[in-house]
Amino acid sequence: MRTVRFGIIGCGLMGREFASAAARWCHLAEMNVRPEIAAVCDSNASMTKWFSDNFASIRQISADYREILANPEVEAVYIAVPHNLHAEFYCAAIEAGKHLMGEKPFGIDIHANRRIMSCIRHHPEVFVRCSSESIFFPSMQRIGRMLESGVFGRIIEVNSGFLHSSDLDPSKPINWKRILKFNGEYGCMGDLGMHACHMPFRAGWYPKDVRAILSNIVPERPDGKGAVVPCEIWDNATLLCATDDVDGNEFPMTIKTQRIAPGNTNTWFIEIFGAKASARWSSKQANTLEIMEYKGGEQAWQVFDMGHGMSYKSITGGIFETGFSDTILQMWAAFLYEFDKGKPIAKFAGTVTPSEVEASHHLFSAALESERKCSVEKIKPETL
Questions:
Q1: At how many degrees (to 10) do helices 188-202 and 138-149 cross?
Q2: pLDDT value of position 346
Q3: Which of 203, 261, 284, 372 has the least C-beta neighbours within 10 A?
């Protein structure tokens, strides 16, 4: 089995999730390539202790990401740092010849993303993808197969979103994701938006225009030191887009990203309504998928229990249910499978491509302009 030695730059929540997935790689039944955590980096030394305590494979611990990139033993990196650092860190990794899995949104704004995209185009030998897990739930994979087989017929409407309520409490202290200079003007769109866009973009549903309603619901928060400071960025976003299906028929698509969505801890959802069939799924009931086929006469939703039907086979029996840690493992399997084989195992079983994340920047930038002008903003096809 081929081993790819990774460096993790940014040892927070998602860095630990990746390391945990690497430790469970034997759970995957048919992979010919595996990750090994060889190096970790964080400016806060206390963040690396969990890694050194749990992974004997780690031979380098540093507070300087440049030292990780200079290590010839490190073949690939996972970078999970605040958005304002994306352009610097991602470009440095690509220029160092390190294959990259990066966190969304691949740049604090469209200008930073253009810098990253230029770097990617100048280094085609480097494999680069963006993190997003929701598409790897079995229900989402089933929807992907339905899209490929054309069972929906003409698309009538699509709604996709990522919702949570972590900011519902106004006394919650501010963190970097709520500060403009670190998170960027996109606000919740930059942090959450790629999750909501992954499946629609992979289906080829790129918005032609957008009317955005953005909300700053809690404009001030405690700083954790006894003071109250401005919370400058958007908490919630609703984007109404005009989109074409693969046959060129226009339909409405709504993209929702919300940090203040009462009752939602961490909820992905998608609804696809078609003339011949419809489907809807929410991670609130992650293991069930609702499908309605229309052949004339009565219309009735069927509920399917999806079990553990994964695109990248695991040792878990098909009767068992799927959770977030399973989709993390699937996402990393998708990254390494495509890195090794040159293409994903199926169209909807691949991680976010640079061109897809670039399209999200055009959408979110147009959404900011729409909010400023209270207008419908065109998204030029050549930018996608």
A1: 40
A2: 97
A3: 372
Closest-CA residue to 145 (of 349, 332, 338): 349
Length of the chain: 384
State the average pLDDT over residues 283-291.
96
Q: What percent of the chain has pLDDT over 90?
A: 96
> What value does the CA radius of gyration of the chain take, rounded to a whole number of Å?
21
Write the DSSP symbol of residue 343.
S
In 165-299, where does DSSP find H-type helix? 180-183, 188-202
DSSP-based three-state secondary structure for 85: helix
pLDDT band of 380, cuts 50, 70, 90: confident
In three-state secondary structure terms, 283 is helix
Helix axes 188-202, 354-373, angle to 10 degrees: 120
| Residue 372: burial class (beta carbons within 10 Å; 0-12, 13-18, 19+) | exposed
pLDDT score at 3: 98
Main-chain dihedrals φ then ψ at residue 213, nearest 5 degrees: -120, 115
Cα–Cα separations (whole angstroms), residue 62 to 2, 5, 220, 236, 359: 26, 16, 35, 36, 34
Q: How buried is 278 (Cβ within 10 angstroms: 0-12 exposed, 13-18 middle, 19+ buried)? A: buried
Q: Which domains does the chain have, with CATH numbers?
A: 2-130 (3.40.50.720), 137-306+354-378 (3.30.360.10)
Q: How far is CA 163 from CA 188, 233, 297, in A?
A: 10, 16, 35
Neighbours of 208 (CB within 10 A): 15
Please determine, for residue 378, whether its predicted confidence score (pLDDT) is greater than 90.
Answer: yes
Q: Using CA atoms, how far apart are residues 61 and 222, in angstroms rounded to an integer? A: 33
Distance CA 334, CA 70 (A): 26
Report d(CA 83, CA 108) in Å as an integer. Answer: 5
